[in-house]
Structures are given as structure tokens and as C-alpha cells.
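Support request, priority: normal
Reporter: lab tech (M.K.)
Component: structure prediction queue

Hi team, I submitted a job for NitT/TauT family transport system ATP-binding protein from Bradyrhizobium canariense yesterday, and the status page still shows it as pending. I've pasted the exact input below so you can check whether something in the sequence is tripping the parser. The sequence length should be 382 residues. Please let me know if I need to resubmit or if it's stuck on your end.
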Amino acid sequence: MSTPLHIGFIPLVDAGALIVAVDKGFAAAEGLDVTLVREVSWSNVRDKLNIGLFDAAHLLAPVAIASSLGLGHVKVPIVAPFNLGLNGNAITVSPALHAAILSEIEGDRLDPMATALALARVVAARRKRGAEPLTFGMTFPFSTHNYQLRFWMAAGGVDPDEDVRLVVLPPPYMVDSLANGQVDAFCVGAPWNSVAVDLGVGHILHFVSEILARAAEKVLAMRQSWSEKNPQVVAALIRASHRAAEFIAEPQNRAEAARILAQPDRIGVDADVILRTLNGRLKISPDGTMRESSRYWLVGREGASRPEPVQAAWLYAQMVRGGQASIAPEALSTAMAVFRPDLYDAALGLRSDAYSEGLGTVDAFAGPRFDPADIAGYLGSF
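Reply from support: The job had stalled in the queue. We restarted it manually and it finished. Here are the results:
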């Protein structure tokens, strides 16, 4: 007898492991009868998970942490026993902002420090002539997109709270907002950056993997109470997702995976756009300029599926840096406990000491090396 599950997701490529697990039959092979429910906004996914309408969800890693800490909403302890991938976001800018940044850049245009400093000069020039602040779209206050934008801007001397406007937009609405001039840039996951480029309304300025080498992004999330009542179901869901992630990681499977993800009730964009993401080969400009990076989105390889508590600690540190949370040892412990490598290892029969220590690092392009044992010192260095 199969176990029925309702799992929410947002139409993004990093929901791929969940979608492929269901549509390729990997979940059914584990005795799971999964209904995937497509949502538009992260608040919808969070709320339906919190009140039990969803058994599990494709969720922003910082939302899982914020819910467990009671930040910005009700307090509901969440666990994340599976990473749905690392990286995968990009910063896309309007043609006008792209031209302005390139006109001010000194150094390599692929260097995030060079572009951050150029952005600071653009911002200063706009302020001098009395222009409105630039507006950047991100997907949620408690999101990697928010923290990645802030981290990049601040490295160049731009105050994300004073010098620009950051606004929340659901991922599927980013492209229209850029095309309509409602935002000047955005940070979002695939495939929406590529869609903007294909429509001629945006240029991909950076892959987030250039800002953070190993950025925790979306997780398979569930209520802690539900996971404790259903340990075998959790283990089965981890195994199905792991099998799907490994399937996507194999180059010979990517065209099939792209067709699965492209379906109207899944992501609903052209399969060729999704395939570019899976291959890490993206068109970054309407003129056809291509860029390739094997690290654009890590899924099913390099330990990307294992939830590392150090990455949760880094996200908590960004919450503190952005004024969303207070620094406290108990809060740090709670944040790190959201990521559950023990459940991942047990489900797959793996030893916890089988992993390289480097898999838990973040490796940001600027600032000191992150140490979860000294968050105050880390934040004080900025």
C-alpha cells in the first residue's frame, strides 16, 4: 500500500529532484504516492507546510530556518534532511543598468568585486543627479536571493537598505517586472534569468556561484513533528530524491529531465531553456553571448544533496547582518539543527565521516572565511 503525500513546489529548476522523483517513478518505487502541488509564492508554500496542508515542500533554506526561529511569522520547527542542490541563482540586470555598470567597471567584468564597485559608482552618480534609487527584485525577505544581493552590493560599498530598493516578487513574475521597468534587476533561480535574456529584456551579470562557491539554496522541508511521526516515509522520500538528483546529474539524462521539468504543470517553459541550466551553459546576453560553468547549479554531485549545518549557520549570520535576527547561541543552535545530515546519512546507509570537510564551506568571494564558532567576529569584520 502506498503512502499518500502532498508536496508543494515553486516552478523552478531546483525543484527538479522532487519532480523527477515523482514523474520517473522513483517515489512510487519507494512506496510513496506523491501529489505535487505547484504554487506561485514562497509565503503560500510556507503557510501550507506550516499548517499541514503539505506534508513536505520545496522550500527556501532560510525560510525553514526563519520558521524554526519564529522570525517573520509563526514559529513552526522545520527540518531539512535533503538539499535540492547548491547554487543555481543568478543576478540579471536591465539593458540600461548593464550598460551603466559596464561604463563604470574597472577590471574583469566577470569579477563580482569589480561589478559591485561599478554598481557603487552608478548609484552615486544617480544620487548626484537626483534620480530614483535602483530597484532590485528578490523572492522573499528570508531568501538566499536577498542575502546574495546584499552580500554582493555591500562588498562594493552599496548599502542595500539605504542606497537601493529591494522588493519581493514571486519568481515567475520577475521577467515581466523587469520588462515593464518596475525593477532594474533581480536575483532569482533558473529558468527565469534565461527567460529574461531570451526575451531581450535582461543580461545575466553574475552566476551566484561566482559570489558563493557552495550556496545552500532550496531544501526538502517538513515539519519536525511530522518527520518524527513518519521516519520511514522521510527516509523513503530522501532515497527517491537522491536517486532523482543523481539521474539529473548524468549528462546523458539531462534532455529527458528537461522535458519532464518543462511540462505545463511543472515549470512550464521551453525544454531547451531548462536544458541550458542543467548543462551549465547559459546565454547571458540578448546578443547570444554564452557562458559555461560546471558550478552554476550543483545537483547530485560533490555532496550537494547533503544538508550541511555550517551552511545553515551562514544563512543565520546573514539574517543577523541584515537586522532580521539577534545574535544568540541558542538561535544559532536552532538554525543549524534545521539541516539534518543524520537523517540523510541514515536513509542512504552512509557514514557521517565519509565526507570531505570542505563540503560544508561557503567560500564567499569577499570577506573573511566563515567560522560558525565566531559569528560575532565574522560579522564585526565587515
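The mean pLDDT is 96. The longest helix spans residues 231-249. Let us know if anything else looks off. Ticket resolved.
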